[in-house]
Design a protein that fits this description.
Layout: H1 7-21, E1 34-39, H2 50-68, E2 72-74, E3 78-79, H3 84-93, H4 97-114, E4 125-126, H5 130-145, E5 149-159, E6 164-166, E7 171-172, E8 175-176, E9 184-193, H6 199-204, H7 214-224, E10 227-236, E11 239-247, E12 258-261, H8 267-274, H9 277-291, H10 295-301, E13 306-314, E14 321-327, E15 338-341, H11 347-356, E16 364-365, E17 384-385, H12 396-409, E18 413-418, E19 424-425, E20 427-428, E21 438-441, E22 445-448, H13 475-478, E23 479-481, E24 488-491, E25 495-496, H14 505-508, H15 521-527, E26 532-535, H16 542-557, E27 570-572, E28 576-578, E29 581-582, H17 593-599, H18 602-611, E30 619-621, H19 623-640, H20 660-681, H21 687-707, H22 712-725, H23 730-739, H24 756-759, E31 764-770, E32 773-780, H25 786-794, H26 797-803, E33 808-814, E34 818-823
Parallel strand pairs: 1-2, 1-26, 3-4, 12-14, 26-27, 28-30, 31-34
Antiparallel strand pairs: 5-6, 5-9, 7-8, 9-19, 10-11, 10-13, 10-18, 12-15, 13-14, 16-17, 20-25, 21-22, 21-24, 23-24, 28-29, 31-32, 33-34
Helix pairs in contact: 1-23, 2-18, 3-4, 8-9, 18-19, 19-21, 20-21, 20-22, 21-22, 22-23
The chain binds one RNA strand of 84 nucleotides through helix 7, strand 11, helix 10, strand 15 and helix 11.
RNA sequence: GGGGAAGUGGCGGAAUGGCAGACGCAGCCGCCUCAAAAGCGGCCGAGGCAACUCAUGUGGGUUCGACUCCCACCUUCCCUACCA
């Protein structure tokens, strides 16, 4: 009896045995229905903490539940292994990125296994391996064939010291995060994917994803930013050219008192030709002052600044001449890079006009306003038009249509739709990524490589100086021959954004060793779509939008069939805080997997993470909290220990239960089973409630073991416990199951099926209300009639006191729960 | 500025229109022990001697009945942000 539960030995033992026996492999061939549960591909940063464990524990519990409910479960794991940290380690410490990454993967793999997860490791992928990234290149070529991958010049963040492009996140206060030099915006020739072609479908199909969190769908809607409006042109005084503007408020056209353009707008060069030398110089100075600012600084942090160019634009309908300004608040890559300024009806234009003494003309008024009153703030809603020629008197909505019709008739403009979404820039001037399979030939120009030339391998033994793209400096990589003419050619030295490989990895898992295709269509037919995707909310847009884009492309090509969305249901798990803060290595505020596995045990860790909050909420890791689950694990062990070696008992047969205690104990088994199953099938995953039911069961079992160890109900409850626990605390469940005398894994058992008879209770508490207030609670047999309930209620002095001498106007009876008497 | 989620004991939370506070943590009391730890048992929203009353951010509404549904407001967290 004195044997205490040795979680370290037991957990290690079963992790090895599961690995050896391969019990978690997805078969694909069985007659079971499929279920694909996936957690977002992790970046192998080196070390896992309990925040990661929350994500994997949830996914693993779902996978284990679904297996025990009879599904053929696909539950794979892999590594998002390209990316900057590996290259930075190389620059800082001279470690080869491939070596650094491989070491991290090895360590994280160990830690993921340590968590008792049930992944099918035969499907593991690492995106930095040629066997994976060659298919990146293959997919890139397919996109290229259809014009969905193209190269064009675009403004980017450029660090002049490191001579490389930086991602927006790597620019801090306008300076390079590594060398702290001021970052410039530069026009560079870059590779893009034409995601904007899919904007309408990406937007509309969000409606086909009811299993996604509303906030994520909303975030994607906002990101795509479809806005309906009109595009039309202003003429320019003294210049045979036009400035196109986009607006959603065509009804305010007569209120335009200026035209604002971005300093990068191509018209600026022509304008400089028609204004004074002084003005032209001022424009250059203004543009120069903005050049070094990142987009972030220009748009969010700066005051609205601007400069009158000296030129005037001509309103196409009112023929008014209005000043043209260059400003920092007009974005060069949204709409046309120019807008009509209507201070009376737009917040930003109002602010700008006030600051620079520009005229304000009111053309839309709310009902009841006298247009003679001076304007104290812009009116930005719809109203009725004034001072707008023959459009005056119209409602805003009608005016938008009428003005658009007039512009269209005159050939000056038309209704259009603008999207905020921009094409996806995938070029990176970095080494540790997928080489883009393009060469530049002196005679043929830009030439895609044929499929036989794949993979374009990343060269090894590279010197990292931190300056510029390492690939550019490797002559043996750059120098090649043109596949078309055989002449001299140079390879593209840009590599792909790592979001490229994570946009399709869920398909590679299904056919990970295929050497002819990225995946066999039959595999996708069997397994897609991903039934449940689990990951953090930080990916509400980027990864999830890119993956949707790719999947629609695959669908159009016929490589996948069915719903053209990859992820049927999506779940965002919450963060884990420690000491009230996000875990962070630099602040020493981390609870590591290795430490907690060693001090508390993995089962206790998993149970705590599931139990502490509903999975979507932020939870706090506390030492007290985890010790509560350690106690629970030990209680489970002690409650089951008396039955070791007593022979395996069939938990599928209900035991004889005669006393109220026995019935309650058997019921507790089925209540817990019902909770686990309901939380799984409802996709709510509130296993915190399930673990609480398991607590109640173990509490009842602990008492029963003391009072009635021989009772069939006690024996039954003890033997059922490992089955109930298996998805959540897989190690102790397996150990108990073996000690009970079973020779097959508990994880291959069917889950306990909730039984109606076992769930039924002998006695219910009927709540008696008078006018909605509780006046009595009476014990009764379930299923009693309304009349019988009324009779019981009227036996209660409290009920009589409230009803005597009054007429009962209405009775509400909820069977086995409540009787409400409404009296006059 | 826009959007999303959420406000329940000392704390984490349970209760998806029907007994508010399950379960756990912390705390208190007891048993066991020479003692401690562990374990086991009990108490644990507020007021009141009590019967009872009050109590789920605030104010309204719907309903026989609201933590739950609707409206407004307050607070907190997350995302996003000059998108014309």
């Amino acid at each position: 009896m004195a044997e205490t539960y040795d979680f370290r030995t037991v957990e290690r033992k079963w992790q090895h045995r599961w690995e050896r026996d391969g019990i978690y492999r997805a078969t694909g061939a069985s007659d079971r229905p499929k279920y694909y549960v996936l957690e977002m591909l992790p970046y192998p940063s080196g070390d896992l903490h309990v925040g990661h464990a929350k994500n994997y524990t949830l996914g693993d519990s779902v996978a284990r539940m679904m297996r025990m409910l009879g599904y053929d479960v696909m539950h794979p794991m892999g590594w998002d292994a390209f990316g900057l940290p590996a290259e930075n380690a190389a620059i800082a410490r001279g470690i080869d990125p491939a070596t650094w990454t491989a070491e991290n993967i090895a360590n994280m793999q160990r830690q993921v296994r340590l968590m008792g997860t049930s992944y099918d490791w035969t499907r593991e992928v690492a995106t930095c391996e040629p066997e994976y990234y060659r298919w990146n290149q293959w997919l890139f070529l397919r996109l290229y064939e259809e014009g969905l991958a193209y190269k064009r010049a675009a403004p980017v963040n450029w660090c002049p010291h490191d001579r490389t492009v930086l991602a927006n996140e790597q620019v801090i206060d306008g300076r390079c995060w590594r060398c702290h030099n001021v970052v410039e915006r530069r026009n560079l020739s870059q590779w893009f994917l034409k995601i904007t072609d899919f904007a309408d479908r990406l937007l509309a199909d969000l409606e086909t994803l009811p299993g996604w969190p509303e906030r994520t769908r909303t975030a994607q809607r906002n990101w795509i930013g479809r806005s309906e409006g009109a595009q039309f042109a202003f003429g320019i005084e003294g210049l045979d050219a036009k400035i196109e503007v986009f607006t959603t408020r065509l009804d305010t056209l007569y209120g335009a008192t200026f035209v604002a353009i971005a300093p990068e707008h191509p018209i600026v060069a022509q304008l400089k030709g028609i204004v004074s030398k002084k003005n032209a110089a001022a424009i250059d100075a203004f543009a120069e002052s903005l050049k070094s600012k990142s987009e972030l600084e220009r748009t969010s942090l700066m005051e609205k600044a601007g400069l009158f160019t000296g030129a005037y634009a001509i309103n196409p309908l009112s023929h008014e001449h209005v000043p043209i300004w260059v400003t920092n608040y007009v974005l060069s890559d949204y709409g046309t890079g120019a807008l009509m300024g209507v201070p009376a009806h737009d917040e930003r234009d109002y602010e700008f006009a006030k600051a620079h003494g520009i005229a304000i003309a009111e053309v839309v008024i709310p009902p009841g306003r006298e247009p003679t009153e001076p304007l104290t703030e812009p009116f930005c809603e719809d109203g009725r038009l004034i001072a707008s020629d023959d459009f005056s008197g119209m409602s805003s909505a009608r005016a938008r249509d009428s003005i658009a019709a007039r512009l269209t008739a005159l050939g000056l403009g038309k209704k259009t739709v603008n999207t905020r979404l921009r094409d996806w820039l995938i070029s990176r001037q970095r080494y540790w990524g997928t080489p883009i399979p393009i060469v530049y030939c002196e005679t043929c120009g830009e030439v895609p490589l044929p499929d036989e030339a794949l993979p374009v391998l990343l060269p090894g033994h590279v010197q990292f100086t931190g300056e510029g793209s390492p690939l550019e400096q490797i002559e043996s990589f750059v120098k090649t021959v043109c596949p078309r003419c055989g002449g001299d050619a140079r390879r593209e030295t840009d590599t792909m954004d790592t979001f490229f490989e994570s946009s399709w990895y869920y398909l590679r898992y299904l056919d990970p060793h295929d050497e002819r295709l990225p995946w066999e269509k039959a595999a996708a037919d069997r397994w897609m779509n991903v039934d449940q995707y689990i990951g953090g909310a930080e990916h509400t847009v980027l990864h999830l939008l890119y993956s949707r884009f790719f999947y629609k492309f695959f669908h159009d090509r016929g490589w996948v069939t069915g719903h053209d969305e990859p992820f049927e249901r999506l779940f965002h798990q919450g963060m884990v805080l420690y000491n009230g803060e996000k875990m962070s290595k630099s602040r020493g505020n981390v609870v590591g997997i290795d430490e907690t596995a060693d001090t508390n045990g993995v089962d206790a860790m998993r149970l705590f993470l599931l139990y502490v909050t509903p999975p979507e909420d932020t939870s706090d890791w506390t030492d007290e909290g985890i010790s509560g689950r350690v106690r629970f694990v030990n209680r489970v062990w002690r409650a089951c220990e008396p039955f070791f070696g007593g022979g395996a008992s069939d938990v599928r047969a209900l035991p004889q239960a005669s006393t109220a205690e026995e019935k309650a104990l058997v019921r507790a088994v089925h209540v817990a089973a019902k909770s686990a199953i309901d939380e799984t099938t409802s996709r709510r995953f509130h296993y915190n409630a399930t673990v609480a039911k398991l607590d109640e069961l173990v509490n009842a079992l602990t008492v029963a073991v003391q009072k009635a160890p021989e009772s069939p109900a006690t024996v039954y409850a003890a033997h059922a416990l490992p089955v109930l626990l298996a998805p959540f605390a897989p190690h102790i469940a397996e150990e108990l199951w073996e000690r009970f005398g079973h020779d097959r894994s508990v994880h291959l058992e069917p889950y306990v099926r909730p039984d109606e008879a076992a769930l039924a209770v002998d006695e219910i508490t009927l709540v008696v209300q008078v006018n909605g207030k509780i006046r009595a609670r009476v014990a009764a047999a379930p299923g009693l009639s309304e009349d019988a309930a009324l009779a019981l209620a009227m036996d209660e002095a409290n009920v009589r006191a409230q009803t005597d001498g009054k007429q009962i106007r209405k009775r509400i009876y909820v069977a086995d729960k409540l009787l409400n008497l409404v009296v006059a």
